[in-house]
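Structure in, sequence out. Go:
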């Protein structure tokens, strides 16, 4: 995993800045990937295949070490609690979660660039050293958000991988513990989000039953009231701000 992530960083450095700074940068990078004289095509294709494979894993890597899963889950719970199936659509929810994730993770990204990627570009450190430096701010972010109970439960499931005492938690344990902790927190927030809308549904259902209108679906009648309540409370902004405050400090 370490070698793959180091290769991913090296690919971004080789292709990204060169193509952005000068028009011939992309052509130069592609020429660098071409096989040299005296080397076999198979030997040159293997690194290229690894680069493309790691780049395809970038979205998964983003979800593993950032707050994106929590954002997406909470917004999905919110949409379901309101009673809307396709508004806002999945693409809009994902886009909003991505930008909020960037807002939260920007200090981590900046630190990772300054301590790892920029020295690598300048030739001051190797790819492995760059990965070790880049992962430090992400490790600090994940450790601050990981529940101790989740970490210990996973550690006890496979004893011998971590002693449970040292501060150097292996990434193979820290990353899944962080993801499970974020999912748990997201479900807790989703439960709190559901409650006020559930109260509206129960009140509307009770009124309809008292009026003898048992054939009318309560969800259809309660939807306008839930929308009005959510709009008047400026719900999307309030929930987004609450999620951001959860990552403050």
């Amino acid at each position: 995993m370490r070698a793959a992530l180091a290769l991913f960083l090296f690919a971004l450095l080789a292709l990204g800045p060169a193509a952005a700074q000068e028009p011939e940068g992309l052509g130069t990078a592609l020429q660098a990937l071409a096989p040299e004289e005296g080397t076999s095509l198979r030997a040159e294709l293997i690194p290229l295949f690894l680069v493309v494979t790691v780049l395809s894993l970038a979205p998964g890597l983003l979800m593993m070490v950032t707050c994106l899963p929590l954002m997406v889950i909470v917004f999905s719970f919110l949409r379901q609690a309101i009673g809307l199936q396709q508004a806002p659509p999945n693409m809009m929810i994902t886009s909003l979660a991505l930008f909020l994730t960037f807002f939260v993770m920007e200090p981590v990204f900046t630190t990772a660039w300054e301590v790892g990627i920029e020295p690598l570009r300048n030739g001051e450190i190797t790819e492995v050293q760059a990965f070790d430096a880049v992962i430090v701010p992400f490790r600090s972010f994940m450790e601050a958000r990981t529940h101790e109970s989740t970490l210990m439960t996973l550690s006890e499931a496979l004893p011998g991988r971590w002693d449970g005492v040292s501060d150097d938690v292996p990434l193979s344990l820290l990353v899944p513990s962080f993801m499970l902790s974020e999912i748990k927190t997201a479900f807790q927030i989703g439960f709190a989000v559901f409650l006020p809308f559930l109260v509206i549904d129960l009140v509307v259902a009770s009124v309809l039953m008292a009026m003898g209108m048992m054939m009318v679906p309560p969800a259809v009648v309660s939807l306008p009231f839930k929308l009005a309540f959510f709009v008047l409370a400026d719900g999307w902004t309030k929930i987004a701000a609450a999620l951001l405050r959860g990552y403050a400090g």
